[in-house]
Design goal:
The longest helix has 17 residues, at about 60-75. The two termini are about 25 Å apart. The chain has helices spanning about 10-15, 25-30, 60-75, and strands spanning about 30-35, 40-45, 85-95, 105-115, 115-125, 130-145. The chain is about 20% helix and about 40% strand.
């Protein structure tokens, strides 16, 4: 499937149904898409020994990476084909240690979007709804440069 001239939502839906290759980052931080809608995404995520810190717990970078990805994807679902985004600010609060080898849910929603900025929020929870981390992200919206002469 070619994604030229596809909207961000179409791009995310193609990733969800695996009609395009998933990003390599998902080998490092296992995330499986569950739901993609305009301004809303849900992923199932899983921390394992690759994500451990020097104390043997899950490194905080795991939550930061997961929530940066989820909030960015929520923003991406709202973009036209000629628009890209880049996270310019990620504010994350770690609420409790992330368990290892336990499926978790990362859910993100768009809060606001303008011509140049988008703001999204995300949560990392377990299946029972217990909150492990919360984040807000601000993304700069960028017009993609044309690759044709």
């Amino acid at each position: 499937m070619t994604l030229n001239n596809k909207t961000g939502l179409e791009w995310m839906q193609a990733m969800l149904d695996q009609s395009i290759a998933l990003p390599e980052m998902l080998k490092t931080v296992p995330m499986q898409g569950v739901l993609v809608e305009k301004g809303h995404v849900i992923f199932e995520v899983f921390a394992d020994t690759r994500h451990s810190n020097v104390f043997g717990g899950v490194h905080g970078g795991f939550s930061a990476t997961v929530l940066d990805t989820a909030t960015g994807c929520a923003v991406h679902t709202m973009l036209n084909a000629d628009t890209a985004y880049a996270t310019i600010d990620l504010n994350i609060k770690m609420c409790r240690p992330v368990p290892m080898d336990v499926p978790l849910i990362a859910e993100a929603n768009l809060i606001n979007i303008s011509k140049s900025l988008a703001i999204a929020e995300g949560q990392l929870k377990d299946q029972a709804g217990k909150l492990y981390a919360h984040a807000t992200a601000t993304c700069m919206l960028l017009v993609k440069e044309s690759t044709t002469p």
